[in-house]
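hiii so my PI (J.) wants the whole complex modelled not just the main chain, which honestly fair. so below is everything: four entries, each one labled with what it is. i double checked the lines twice but i was tired so who knows lol
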Amino acid sequence: MSLPHAILTALLERPSSSGLDLTRRFDRSIGYFWSATHQQIYRELGRLEAEGHIRALPAEQPARGQKKAYEVLPAGRAELARWTAAAQDPKPHRDALLLRLRAAAVVGTAGLDADLRRHLELHRRQLAEYREIEQRDFPAGADSAQARLQHLVLRAGIELETFWTQWLTEALAELPVVDGEPG
Amino acid sequence: MSLPHAILTALLERPSSSGLDLTRRFDRSIGYFWSATHQQIYRELGRLEAEGHIRALPAEQPARGQKKAYEVLPAGRAELARWTAAAQDPKPHRDALLLRLRAAAVVGTAGLDADLRRHLELHRRQLAEYREIEQRDFPAGADSAQARLQHLVLRAGIELETFWTQWLTEALAELPVVDGEPG
DNA sequence: CCGATCATGTAACTCGTTACATGATTAT
DNA sequence: ATAATCATGTAACGAGTTACATGATCGG
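here's the output for the full assembly
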C-alpha cells in the first residue's frame, strides 16, 4: 500500500497538481522509485478524496476533459507521517534478469548476450541522468535538511545503477566462454 | 510473466519435485530473487500442466492430500530457453524505503530511525546468509559453466545487500541531525 | 483416537496493466 | 473544420495476497 502515500508526497511537494501533472512526475522524479500509470493515479485520487485525505480545489467545472487540481488535507498529511514512521517489512525481491541467468545456467546462454548488452546500455543512460540531476539540483555546499534527505535518495539510485552497470559488464565478460547449448 | 519460468527452472534443477517441495525452495534459493507463495505455485503448476509444459508423474493417487510430483516436458524446456533469450524491458523500480525517505523530507523524520535500524539488521543477516552459501557452494577453484553462472547471480545478491547495509548506515548517520517535525 | 503437521487446493480481494472512451483545447 | 494533443476517465484482465478448506500421515 504505497501508491496513495507516493501521491500524497508528490502532492505535498507541489500542491494543486492535477492528475496529469502527477502522471508526468511519475515518469521521472518520484517515478524513479515508485512508478504508476495515469489509470492508477486517477483511481487512487478518487479513493484519497473519498477518504478525506485530499480534496479537489473548487473550480465549478463539469469534470470530464477539464483540469482538476488537488491539495492534501490535514488528515492526509497525518496519514503520510504515520505511514512514514510505521514499521514495514521489506518486500521480497523479484528480479527477472537474475532469474533469467539462473535459467540460462540450466538451458544454456544462447541468444542472451544481446539483451544483456541492451540492459547495460539502459542502466548507463539512467546513471547518466541521475548524475545530471545531482549536479543540477545538489551542487556542493550547505544543504537544508530536506535537500540532504532528497540527495540521499538520489545517491541510492546512483549507486544501484552503478552496481548494475558493473555487474552486467562482468556478466557479459563471463558469457562467451560459456556459450552454446549444453546437453 | 516470470513465475512460470521460475517454476520451470526450479523443476529442471530438481526434477520430480512436488508443489510443496517447490514452495520450500521459493523461500530460499530461487526465492531470493523470485518469491512466490504456495497458492501461486499450485495455480501455476495447473496452468503449466494444461499447456503441456510439465506433467504429473504417474502414481494413481486421488490427488487431495497426496504428494504429486512433476517433471518438465520438452515443450516446457523449449519455452524456458525461448524466454531466457527473448528481449525484455526492465520493470520500473518500486522501493518503499526510498519512497518513505522522500516522504520524510516533507513530513519529517520523527520515528523513522527505528525501522531503518531494523532494515539494516535484516540486510546484514541476508548478506551473512549469502556469504555462507558462497563459501559452502562456491569454494575457490575450477567451476563448471553452470556453477559460474550461479555464482554470478549469487554475487549480485551479495553486492546488493552490501549496498543496502552501507546506504542504510549512511542514512542513519544523517537522520539525527535532521530530527524533529518541520513546519 | 487426537492433535500436529504435511500436502493440495478454493475463494475473495487488491494492485497493476492494457485497451479503449470521451470531452476540451489548440494549431493549422 | 479538423487533426493533434491535453485531460479525465471506464472496463476487463492478470498477477499477487490473504484467509480459509480439506484430506493424508504420523507421533503420542
